[in-house]
Design goal:
binds S-adenosylmethionine; alpha/beta
Length: 264
């Protein structure tokens, strides 16, 4: 019997310069499930599990950040000891809650008032989404997890909020981390603004940068409803790949997660 992966491998074009291609992962849904079952779900904090299960009942559930990407982001947040973050695109709050659970609990109070360059009543995570209704689906779980005080939810399109933050020079280079998971057409606009707001050494992470694999397909093979965002994502991927202000890693986690580290 020929297994799926060997059919897949035969269909790939190998060149001598790319002997590592056969190591490519995620050749089947079973493999994705394997990663989730063995490594992600057993370690997923219970509030995140609860939020994932509540979100699964919502018609927009496919929008939620995948738990494996969430696990990677949690690791990144802890590695850089992120305290001040921006979240663009909240939906029911899976990535928001994991960020709130990953930033230090002791970073509140006095330290917040001393360090943050925003008004002293601002929280550590600025979370922006024009849809408050979906945020409110996850909010009771965020409250129960005891991390709501870390979140400043702003019901708005993200661009005007970022522009407003940039009007205050003190906000420049003051954030440790940003996560972007919203309208793909604005990814480059977000990138430009976040590069000013995030400090050198800080991270900007973009979700959906493989756009369901369509970035590597001919446009004719892509359904109409995915074409516009696919074009934006391809433009974004091309642009960040040559951007000298950042280091990047495009990981095949979830729907593609591009990690940008500001270096200048
Ligand atoms: C893919 S979902 C975000 C999923 C979220 N990261 C999670 O883990 O559940 C995209 C969200 O972006 C929001 N959105 C769309 N356009 C936006 C904009 N211009 N500014 C901010 N958020 C936007 C949508 O309302 C939606 O809630």
């Amino acid at each position: 019997m020929i297994c799926f992966s060997s059919i897949y491998l035969k269909s790939m074009e190998f060149t001598t310069a790319e002997p590592f291609l056969h190591k490519g992962l995620l050749q089947s849904f079973e493999l994705t499930k394997y990663i989730l079952k063995t490594n992600v779900y057993p370690r997923e904090p219970s509030p995140l599990k609860e939020l994932r299960e509540v979100t699964a009942k919502h018609p927009g559930n496919f929008m939620s950040t995948t738990p494996d990407s969430g696990q990677l982001m949690g690791m990144l947040l802890k590695l850089i000891n992120a305290k001040k973050t921006i979240e663009i695109g909240v939906y029911t709050g899976y990535s928001l809650l994991l960020t709130a659970l990953s930033i230090p609990h002791d970073a509140m109070g006095i330290e917040l008032i001393r360090n943050i360059k925003l008004p002293t009543d601002s929280s550590m995570i600025i979370a922006i989404d024009p849809n408050k209704e979906t945020y409110e689906i996850g909010l009771p779980i965020i409250q129960k997890a005891g991390v709501e005080h870390k979140i400043n939810f702003i019901e708005s399109q993200a661009l005007p909020v970022l522009d407003k933050l940039l009007q205050n020079k003190d906000n420049e280079g003051s954030f440790d981390f940003a996560f972007v998971d919203a309208d793909k057409e604005n990814y480059l606009n977000y990138h430009e603004r976040l590069l000013k707001l995030v400090k050198v050494g800080g991270l900007i992470v973009f979700d959906n940068t493989l756009w369901g694999g369509t970035v590597a397909q001919p446009e004719e093979a892509v359904s109409e409803d995915r074409k516009e965002s696919r074009r934006s994502i391809i433009e974004f991927n091309n642009s960040v790949s040559i951007d000298q202000r950042i280091e990047i890693a495009l990981t095949p986690s979830g729907d593609g997660l591009t990690i940008c580290r500001r270096i200048r």
